Each structure stands twice: as structure tokens, then as C-alpha cells.
Amino acid sequence: MTALTQSVALARESGVAPRTAPSKTGDRLFQGLSYASALLVLLVLAGILGSIIYGAWPAFTEFGFGFLTSSAWNIGTEQFGALPAIIGTVAAALLALVIGVPISLGIAIYLTQLCPGWARKPVAMTIELLASVPSIIYGMWGLFVFAPLFARFVQVPVSNLVEGMPIVGTILYARIPSGVGVLTAGIILAIMIVPFVASITRDMLDQIPTVLRESAYGIGCTTWEVVRHVLVPQASVSIIGAIMLGLGRALGETMAVTFVIGNANRLSASIFDPGSTIASRIANEFNEADGLQLSSLMALGCLLFIITFFVLIIARLLVRRAKVA
Amino acid sequence: MDATNPITATGRTPAVSRVRSSRRVADRILIVASTLATLLGIVVLGSILLMLIVEGVKGFTPTLLTAPTPGPGSEGGGIANAILGSLVMTFIGIVIATPIGLMAGTFLAEYGKTSKIADVIRFLNDVLLSAPSILIGLFVYTLMVRPMGTYSGWAGAVALAIIAVPVIVRTTEDMLRLVPGPMREAGAALGAPRSLVIRAITWRAASAGIVTGIILALARIAGETAPLLFTALNNNSWFNANLLGGVPNLPVMIYQFALSPYPNWQSLAWAGALLITVTILALSVTARFVIKEQRQR
């Protein structure tokens, strides 16, 4: 303090103006701007919900809760129901999980436990690049490469095999084996969520202290036993979170699904048959829609918002601070 | 870990094994299954790239990059208008998103830290990061297209910006947190106000990471189709300089042309798909290298 007074006195004597503290205004302005930008994120989220509810209002008041249970989609009579789209969305996303999760866990285990050191980085990068491929490209791949192969080598043989059987004969029977359908959408979605789930799981497995793993190997455990009894219990909560995150993506994915799901407006008991999801129906019909149809599409969007945000919030609570996709 | 596990390390069973065969079988199944899963991932990526190259190269005509998209069923033409439209909208989107994302990320890392409001914003930003992009399209449709009465490049750019912001917020915050506290304290000890410390010290120290976030956001929005469907739409000619009316763009062009019955449109869609994928993969790879450099610093 004395030193400061002395130097200020010295500055006065020598005729140099003492240095004043920089203005607070700029500092406050900067802080205010950053605060405002952060609040904008909240505002956007609220805006998305608000605008969709606003757009969906006429449909909600017209159909009430019947909207959820009706499977009508008739533009002529203006009767709309969400059931086929909801079931399609949930079915495709669940199929994606059933197929995608084991693959993701396999990749995460391979990368953390089995992969030779030199190959780890290139392999991890290849898997992560799958996440950057735009969804429309997955759609094209699904429709032009995967669907024909799927029709020929899976749908036709399986349909022939199960024809006439009870239950299986309904679920796995393709009336027109074109390759597109709910199961195809599930498979493409599975491929799309694999990089996300695998990379989060891998990070979680990497965070487990090596000592735990090594002591398990030290008492003679096999890789399977280490994974089953040491790694999975340690990371289980985060892995479930990663799976939920994948589910959130699968539920809302639009373009890839629109290409391969077949866009049928009716319900079918077979997973080989075409169907539609909320997102694919919005993508298909929104631009040509008006009036009650537009509002019903908005209402579908509102349902999608509620479903995915519920799933994503659970996911984010389970995986705290997972990496950026 | 290989060294601690003699069975997998040598790839063969020791002469006298004390491991029960059921345990060995379970172990083998795991190893084979996870290796196959990884191979599957690599094969799918390879197959996608192969498909794009085989089909895309056929679409490369001399006029591809100079002519606008042709009308339905007509020959020739290119995708120059869609490329330009995409570039313009992506650029505007990033220009809108960068300051907002940078400032919001700065708030979370420097001002908000562990406060309640920062926690809420951080959490909802993470949710927004994985929100279905088609809902953002619906939002911008209600917000801009309907009041303005026309589809526009501005609406498309705003939709893309909304997708880019959470990515930039997230990476900015993560990268600023890597900057050691003593650097900030050193700046403050020199008498610099907090905003100057942030701008001259923390931002500079984290610059490579922040740039990576912007590149990642760019890679993310360059291929987005769903939010453009109801905002920018598409058209088959050059767009207006004021960006009002439909603005052609690669993703929606690919979507419409790939599903069209015209061979010429389909081949243009493939060429566009190859172009866009190569660009996005290149951006992602670049981002990964930059971020690695930042983390090592």
C-alpha cells in the first residue's frame, strides 16, 4: 500500500498522470453479453416448445386425447390420428437399440481391451467418422445399397420360411419384399447410433482405473469375466445413459428413415412392412399441408418433442458431461 | 493388458490349461463378437464411401460445377446453384452462431461456473445438442417462414445456426476449462479487468480448441437436411440475391433428386452426395487434428 502511494506521488511529481483503473462499463458490457448469449440457449429451447404447441393447438382442441389413439390419417375428411406414427417411431427406435447396442458395446470392448496399440487410433477414428456422415447419405445407402440386398437375402428367405406359422408368420412376413420397411429403418438407425454409443462407452471404460482391471486379470479372470464382472458394473449407469442418448437420436432421426421406412400411413403387424415415423411423416407432408393437416403434423412434432426430450434428459442425467458428438 | 492375460496375448491356449472350457468359450465368443462388431463398423463406412465414389464420379460432368440444376427430365445441367446456396446459408449460419456460442460458452466457463443458472443452461445446451433437427425446422418455420410469407435463405441460415450454437457452446466451454487458472490470475495481477483477461489470455490460450468447435459445427450443419426442408426449401434455378424465395441447397437437392424418377437428376444427386460427404469428412478429420494439438499443449 505504501509502495502504491509512493509511486502515485512519484507520478504526480514527475508530471505523468497516474494510471486510472480501466472503465467498468466495457467489463460489465462483456459480462452482460455473455450472460445474454447463454440465456438465449434457454430461450431457443422454450421457443421451440412454444412454437410447436402454438402450431399444434387447433389439432389438439379438435381431436383431444383421441389424437393419440386414432390411426386415421385422412386428408379428405380431415381426420388425423397419431397412433401409427407413434408406434412406427418407437418400433424403429427400439429395433435400432436391440441391434445397435450389442454392436456398440462390442466396439467399445474391442477398442479398450483387445485392439493392439498401433491400431487403436485409426480404428477409433474410423468408427467416429461414421458419426459425421450426413443422415441423408445413410438414407441413400440404405435405399440403394442395403435395401436390395436385404430384400434378396433376408426378407424373401425369411418370409418363405415363416409363411403360415403363428405369430412369427405375421411379424416376419413381407407381403411385398421390397427391402424397405420398419426393420430396415431400425437397422439403418442402429448403424447411425453405433458411433455415439460406442464412443461414450469407450470413454467410460477408459476412465475405470487400470488397477481394477489388472487385479482381475491377476487373479486369473478371462477377458469376458473382466468385462462382465468388473467393467460393466463399474460403468453400467453411464452405459445406460449412452444407450438413452442413442435412443434420443434414433427417435428424432428424419432423413435416413424417410428414405427407407416406406412411408405407409397404416399400421402393420409385420416389421418387414413399410410404416412411418413421426419425423418421416412431417418431412413428407409438411410442405404440402395446410389447415388441420398442418396443425396435426405440428401436434406430431409436439409429441416427438416430449418423447425425445424426456429420453434425452434421463440420458444426460445418467451421462454427466459426455463428449461432444 | 495383453501381458496380464496370457490366453489372449498369445492367441493360443497354454499346454496345461487351468481354465475351464466353458470360461474359455465365453471368452472366445466375446473376443470374436467384439472384433466382428468393429469390422462391421469399418465395412459399413467403407461401403458407404465406395458407393459414393462409384456412383458419384459418374455424375461428374464438365458443367457440374458451373450450371444450375436442370428441369425435370431434361439433360445436362449441374449443381452450381445448390453448392452456392449451401455455402451462403452455412456461412451465414456460422456467422450467427459463432458469437452467440462463443459468448455463451465463455459465460459457462468463466462467469457462471457452478452456479445454478449455469448448471441449467449447460444441461439444456446438452439436450439441445441432440435434439431432433426436424423440430428446429418446425420452430423456424413458425418463427420466420410463416410471418414473412415466403421460404427464405435467412430462415434456413437461422435454422442451421440453432443447430450450430450448442456445438460451439460445448466445445468453447470445454476448451476454456483446460486453460490453467494461474494464467487468469497472472492477468488479473497485472490489473487487467476480467473481460480483458478473458479476451487476451483465456481465449488466446484456447484458440485452437475454439476453432475446432466452429469446424465441428460447420461439419454438423453442412449436411443437415431436415431443418432446411421447411425453411429454405429448394428450387431449380439461381436464387434471389436477397435470399427470399426458395434457396437451392445441396442436402435438399440430393433428397429430391435421389428419389426422383429421372436418371439425370439421380446422377446429379450422387455427385452432390459425394461432394458433400468428402467435404464433411475432411472437416471432421481436420477438427480432430486441431483438437489433439490443443489438448497436448
Automatic annotation (TrEMBL), chain A:
SUPFAM superfamilies: MetI-like (SSF161098). It comes from the Bacteria. The keyword Transmembrane applies. It is a multi-pass membrane protein. PROSITE patterns: ABC_TM1. Belongs to the binding-protein-dependent transport system permease family. CysTW subfamily. This is Phosphate transport system permease protein.
Automatic annotation (TrEMBL), chain B:
Its main location: membrane. CDD domains: TM_PBP2. It is found in: Cell inner membrane; Cell membrane. Gene3D superfamilies: MetI-like (1.10.3720.10). The chain crosses the membrane at residues 29-54, 79-102, 123-145, 151-169, 201-222, 268-291. It comes from the Bacteria. Keywords: Cell membrane, Membrane, Phosphate transport, Transmembrane, Transmembrane helix, Transport. The keyword Nucleotide-binding does not apply. This is Phosphate transport system permease protein PstA. It comes from Methylorubrum suomiense. The lineage of its organism: Bacteria, Pseudomonadati, Pseudomonadota, Alphaproteobacteria, Hyphomicrobiales.
